[in-house]
Specification:
A 5-stranded parallel sheet has the order 2-3-4-1-5, with helices on both faces. It folds into 3 domains: 31-201, P-loop containing nucleotide triphosphate hydrolases (Rossmann fold, 3-Layer(aba) Sandwich); 204-287, Orthogonal Bundle (Helicase, Ruva Protein, domain 3); 291-389, Arc Repressor Mutant, subunit A. The protein contains 16 helices and 8 strands. Strand 7 and strand 8 form a beta hairpin. By secondary structure, the protein is an alpha/beta fold. The longest helix is centred in the last third of the chain and has 21 residues, at 269-289. Bound molecules: adenosine-5'-triphosphate and magnesium ion (MG).
Length: 402
């Protein structure tokens, strides 16, 4: 029996409409945000300097989609008076890379080699291109958080200060971030210029996610392959943590793939449940696999202790368990301080919960509790070559290392 199906999909009419980069023709429940951004950028459509704006919101709340949507319209409708450039700072993660991305977009989007040029040179070229054409350049710095540790403030200063140096044309900036605290450490001048307007994107509710999914399903899926019950189950899942449209759309695609691979002619709730299970596991796996070994050992110690029924773990117990595990592996334990940092990182990633609690006279200590299923995490950790090989048969048997 062949491994792949080559017949046309029974489920998808246009699977690309569920790609993360797809921008739909309308964005339900973001009408106000679109309108506000249009208002901020409308001077640019007339060739004047737009209002700088900061956009905040949790992941999957439509920040990138709305900004690209409005930016595309600006490019199409301004008759060349404005130029919108969308920079993903996860890819262009240094000021130099951002500037070269802007310059190449100004020059028609052809990738060019800028190695050997200095930042000042590229910046100067941007200024002369803007000045010569008189264009209103709008730069969206998406995932701006990524840039802040690498000289982002200097870059913001250059971009915001450019208007003082231009004879003609202008530069406006849209900053996009998850965390409202991103501007906290910034020079007050940079901060106030950047936040001439602020737009906060709230998480979607379940019914809003339903509308988004229904729109997408109509484009991406064949008629009769889906129903509201299926979409509702997906929407509820995506709304459970916070209203994340990306997660909703990914689940729909995965459920469609599962239905397709099973030769089904429609997506059922069972396919959604299976998609949810796989998505969750993929997510955990991606997080855990990239952890350094000692951090994996800390997580392993936490899972072992929780699996034995401990409702919460104090730092000293955890440190003992961690030391045992790494000693078994023939490694030297790191200091308690490092382990505490690891615990903090694991909590930031959402793998565990950690909080500082006060125990009367005994003082304060960090206490760890479960957030994800420890048994599942343990399964993933056991796939690490070193951790999995410990103690013959690994930690899989009845006897454990602790
Ligand atoms: N109102 C909406 N209507 C239709 N699709 C939407 C809407 N909001 C978001 N989406 C879709 O959901 C997905 C995630 O949205 P988007 O990438 O804009 O999130 P984000 O806020 O930028 O998240 P992150 O902070 O993780 O970058 C995208 O595929 C986007 O097209
Ligand atoms: Mg985004």
């Amino acid at each position: 029996m062949p491994l792949f199906r080559t017949d046309p999909s029974r489920i998808f009419a246009d699977r690309r409409a569920l790609d993360p980069s797809f921008i739909p023709s309308r964005l339900p429940h973001r009408e106000e945000e679109v309108e506000r951004l249009v208002l901020d950028l409308s001077p640019a459509a007339r060739g004047e300097r737009p209002t700088n704006v900061l956009i905040y919101g949790k992941t999957g709340t439509g920040k990138t989609a709305v900004t690209r949507f409005v930016g595309r319209a600006l490019n199409e409708e301004s008759g060349g008076r404005a130029k919108y450039v969308h920079v993903n700072c996860e890819i262009s993660y240094t000021p130099f890379l951002v500037l070269t991305k802007i310059l190449s977009e100004l020059r028609g989007g052809q990738p060019e080699a800028y190695t050997g040029f200095s930042q000042d040179y590229v910046y100067g070229k941007i200024l002369s291109a803007v000045s010569a054409s008189g264009v209103s350049l709008v730069v969206a710095l998406d995932e701006m958080d990524r840039l802040m540790a690498r000289g982002g403030e200097g870059l913001l200063y250059l971009l915001l200060d450019a208007n003082e140096r231009l004879d003609s044309g202008s530069i406006g900036v849209i900053g996009i971030a998850n965390d409202i605290g991103i501007t906290r450490g910034l020079d007050p001048r940079v901060r106030s210029r950047l936040s001439e307007d602020k737009i906060v994107f709230p998480p979607y509710t379940t019914t809003q996610l339903m509308d988004i999914l229904r729109d997408r399903a109509r484009v991406a899926l064949r008629p009769g392959t889906w129903d509201d019950g299926v979409l509702e189950l997906i929407a509820l899942t995506a709304a459970a943590e916070h209203g994340d449209a990306r997660r909703a759309i990914e689940l729909l695609r995965l459920a469609g793939d599962i239905a397709d691979s099973r030769g089904s002619d429609r997506i059922t709730e069972e396919h959604v449940v299976e998609a949810r299970r796989r998505a969750e596991e993929d997510y955990l796996r991606r997080l855990v696999e990239t952890l350094p070994l000692h951090q994996k050992a800390v997580l392993m110690a936490i899972c072992e202790l929780l699996n034995r029924g401990a409702p919460m773990i104090t730092m000293s117990v955890l440190y003992g368990a961690y030391s045992n595990i790494v000693s078994f592996a023939g490694l030297q334990p790191l200091t308690q301080r490092r382990v505490r940092d690891f615990v903090h990182d694991l909590a930031t990633m959402g793998l565990i919960s950690a909080e500082v609690r006060s125990f009367g006279r005994e003082g304060r200590t960090t206490v760890v509790t479960a957030k994800s299923d420890p048994a599942k995490l343990r399964q993933i950790l056991l796939q690490d070559e070193l951790l999995g090989s410990l103690g013959g048969g690994g930690f899989g048997g009845q006897r454990t290392l602790l």
